Amino acid sequence: MLQIAIIVGSTRQHRLADRVAQWVERAARDMEGWHVTVLDLKDMQLPLYHDETLPAAMHGTYANEKVAAWSHAINKAEAFLILSPEYNHSVPAPLKNALDWLYPEWADKPAGIIGYSSSPIGGARAIEHLRTILGTLGVATVKTALTIGRAQDVISEDGVCKDDTLNSVLRTEFDQVDAWGKAFSCLHTEK
Ligand SMILES: Cc1cc2nc3c(=O)[nH]c(=O)nc-3n(C[C@H](O)[C@H](O)[C@H](O)COP(=O)(O)O)c2cc1C
Predict the structure, then answer these.
(1) How many CB atoms are located within 10 Å of the residue 178 CB?
(2) The CATH number of domain 2-187, selected from 3.30.710.10, 1.10.357.10, 3.40.50.300, 3.40.50.360
(3) Given ligand 1 and candidates 15, 84, 119, 155, which is best to mutate, with the most ligand atoms within 8 Å of its CB?
């Protein structure tokens, strides 16, 4: 089974992320050969990055138990689906913070980004920033990145999306993550 982690990048109360995450999780659980885990940054409660030692020099050991749990979860994953809203034309701070905390855990794994926002932009600018950040961490982002504009209008509160194009593009993105996830799996020794 390919270990897929869905990372929910918003920590707000009453967030749009809840409906996007339900929709993505349900579709991901329908994928054959995927074992899906949801990593919700709201639950992870990571501290703001403050460590004296650079993440690249931590070798995966962390004194803070929440960071250690985050490290363990990311280590276990073989591929990511990253849900990101757009805040001020970029990545939300909690997501950037969660990415910054770790280093070797990310390497040589693929990711599909699912961007969304309440405006028609659909997180497009956040997605491009995320691609750069993830590339620095050794995460390869697949070509397709879904942009969900006016997410409040296209996904219901219980995570149902009736837009055929969005459902079809999501499936295309999943197939790309699946192909790269399988291809990259020979690079990981730790699970
Ligand atoms: C701090 C902040 C900055 C925002 N900046 C943008 C933006 O640059 N572009 C955009 O399309 N929406 C922007 N929005 C609106 C978000 O798309 C909207 O609040 C959405 O619900 C965020 O997702 P979330 O509820 O899952 O956190 C911003 C929202 C916040 C809270």
Answers:
(1) 20
(2) 3.40.50.360
(3) 119
